[in-house]
Amino acid sequence: MAEPTPHLSREFVERQRERLEGLRRQLLGAEQTTLARDRTRQEEHGAEVHDLEDSAQEMARQEIAQALRDVDEPRLQAIERALQKIEQGTYGFSDLSGAPIPLERLVSTPEAFLTLDEERRQEVRRPPPRLR
Known about the structure:
mainly alpha
């Protein structure tokens, strides 16, 4: 790991690394659990004839799982970026402007790689999600 950034202590950055790795395990574990549950359900029911209610419930489960993946994937990417920044010694500085990210923001959102104002500006520019 490179030297921690001047406004953050080595201990703080190490705690953040541990938090980020825990968050990553948690998100990946949830995805693996969902996949395993789907596999088990498929193995148990195989080619059985499903009634309309079973099909509707399965579609609802799939939609929920996809919605969770849609939320988790960008967060996983942000976590990976934050871990990369720790390795590079740039954790705590904005990817966009290079400005220091306030300690309070890093405590509440350890995967932050933009200041709050920069993130808000990007969200305003982002097109709305497409409906399926």
